[in-house]
Every structure is written in structure tokens, then in C-alpha cells.
Specification:
The chain is an alpha+beta fold. It has three helices and seven strands; from the N terminus they run E-E-E-H-E-E-H-E-E-H. It has a single domain, classed as Quinone Oxidoreductase, Chain A, domain 1 (Alpha-Beta Complex), CATH 3.90.180. Strands 6-3-4-5-7 form a five-stranded antiparallel beta sheet. The chain has a two-stranded antiparallel sheet with strand order 1-2. A hairpin with an 8-residue loop joins strand 1 and strand 2. The longest helix has 20 residues. The mean pLDDT is about 95. Bound molecules: zinc ion (2 copies).
Length: about 180
């Protein structure tokens, strides 16, 4: 069985620990991603300082990676672009489709995103601070255009989150 390495949050205030994980067989509908770049987010820092934070977790929820293996049936991204192995992608865990936040197109309140999931449970490699990340069946995928740098693609994710939550914090109207 192939394995890979990832940096694991093992508890508040402790250095991240590099651990080895099995790379799962890619199920139909799933995707194996070879990580290229992950951002360190303020959320990671808050969690690292939070005495109630649960661990172990592989951090990294703002990610760019390349498709290492496509599960059967995964052929296109959310815009209808064809996907091939080697393509760089942005991705998100699929929502439950049943909660009120899913209904209005926001982050699902049931399915936690990549970078927040326990690394001691299958399929283990579900954060960006590692060599590979396993997307469970039904992910949202956006192909990065060939002429866009990986840095720029990553900043489009990080920038959006951070700026939008900043605007929300100061009472700005996101719809206006
Ligand atoms: Zn973040
Ligand atoms: Zn949901």
C-alpha cells in the first residue's frame, strides 16, 4: 500500500507532528489530489491556541492541488470544464444537501470541510498540510486555468474568505 506524509495538529500549543498515512483506494466519485500549496489561515492559529480544540487534525482548508487520480464518474468541474489527471484544482467538500445552509448555498453545517476532520479516522488524509488529500465522493471542484499561477489561485480562495469575513465583521452588506 502506498503511503504519504502529512503535518498533524496533535494538540494546542504543540508543534505539528509529521506522520505517515495510507493512501486510500480511490472510490467511484472520489478524487485523489497531490497537494501543491496550502495557506496558513488565521483559523489554524486560533485552533492551535484553543485549549478545547480537538485533535488529531491535518490543517489546511485553503488549498490548491493537482489531480493524482480521478474516481470513476468524475469527469467535469462545476463550470463544465473537463478534468484530467495533472490538472490543478480548487476544491471543497460536498455539502449534505439537506441543511438550511446548503439550501442557501453557504458552507454546510453538517459536513465539516477539509482541514477540520479527524486524521485518525478513514480516509485520514483530509487536510492540505500533506502530500496528498483525499476528496470523498461528490466534491465541488474548480479547475485552475493553465495561465494562472498556483499562488494566484490560492490567493483567490484565501482572499475571498478573509475579506468577506472582514466585511461581515464591520457590519457591511455582502449583498449590496
Ligand atoms: Zn481560512
Ligand atoms: Zn448541509
Amino acid at each position: 500500500m502506498d503511503t504519504c506524509m502529512a503535518a498533524v495538529f496533535v494538540g494546542p500549543g504543540k508543534p505539528l507532528e509529521v506522520q505517515e498515512f495510507p493512501i486510500p483506494e480511490v472510490e467511484p466519485g472520489a478524487v485523489l489530489v497531490r497537494m501543491e500549496m496550502a495557506a496558513v489561515c488565521g483559523t489554524d492559529v486560533h485552533t492551535w491556541h484553543d485549549p478545547t480544540a480537538s485533535s488529531p487534525v491535518i490543517f489546511g482548508h485553503e488549498n490548491v492541488g493537482a489531480i493524482a487520480q480521478l474516481g470513476r464518474g468524475v469527469t467535469h468541474d462545476v463550470l463544465g470544464n473537463q478534468l484530467r489527471e495533472g490538472d490543478r484544482i480548487l476544491f471543497r467538500r460536498g455539502g449534505c444537501g439537506l441543511c438550511t445552509r446548503c439550501a442557501v448555498g453557504e458552507s454546510c453545517q453538517v459536513n465539516r470541510g477539509y482541514g477540520f476532520l479527524p486524521s485518525d479516522q478513514f480516509p485520514h488524509i483530509q487536510g492540505g498540510f500533506g502530500q496528498y488529500l483525499y476528496l470523498e465522493p461528490g466534491p465541488w471542484i474548480l479547475r485552475v486555468p493553465d495561465d494562472m499561477s498556483t499562488e494566484r489561485a490560492l490567493m483567490s480562495v484565501v482572499g475571498n474568505h478573509t475579506v468577506l469575513s472582514g466585511i461581515e465583521k464591520i457590519g457591511g452588506d455582502l449583498d449590496g
